[in-house]
Amino acid sequence: xxxxxxxxxxxxxSTLIRNLLKKLGKAKIxxxxxxxxxxxxxxxxxxxxxxxxxxxPLTELFLYESARAEHFEKIIAPALKTKKIVLxxxxxxxxxxxxxxxxxxxxxxxxxxxxLATHHRAPDLTFFLDLPVEEGLARATxxxxxxxxxxxFQKKVRKGFLYSIKKNKKRWKVISVKNKTPDExxxxxxxxxxxxL
Length: 197
Ligand code: TYD
Prior knowledge:
By secondary structure, the chain is an alpha/beta fold. About 60% of the residues lie in helices and about 15% in strands.
């Protein structure tokens, strides 16, 4: 099962994924945690280039998709083959939200590239960690270039996620994280995953 985690900045995805991996391990359920951009040696190098440089939006899109193709081939597909659950911190929907809605690139082009990079393998389940963008940005301690782009940019990103959720309701689970502890969020998400097994 391929499970992706999406959200605007500071929504707590990374903490959740760390906690989930531990909980799945204790329940003897085989799983790996990975992230995009990155997750494999070459994709992590591409990540460094993307996050540490300003660049043309189309260049940025191709780099995300290159990283994804490599990550999918080297890490995700082999893990799925051995029946592991893959927990992926960001995936194809981030590209729609960031490069599409926030950067303004055309959605059909992004959808085509997303499919090419993943051999048409969409996630089985996608969690959207829902937190007001103002709260998320206030949590960022070491802001990356997208966090520095500010509230208006994040609002466009959020709109992008809401678009994808509306388009594909079956695959998405929206989890409101406002006023919840990390443990409460972990338990809620864990129960949803276990029910799907
Ligand atoms: P990261 O520091 O991991 O941010 P976060 O903790 O919010 O996931 O940096 C990844 C950044 O890359 C994040 O700001 C979202 C952005 N991104 C895209 O713009 N397009 C994409 O396709 C992906 C996967 C991520």
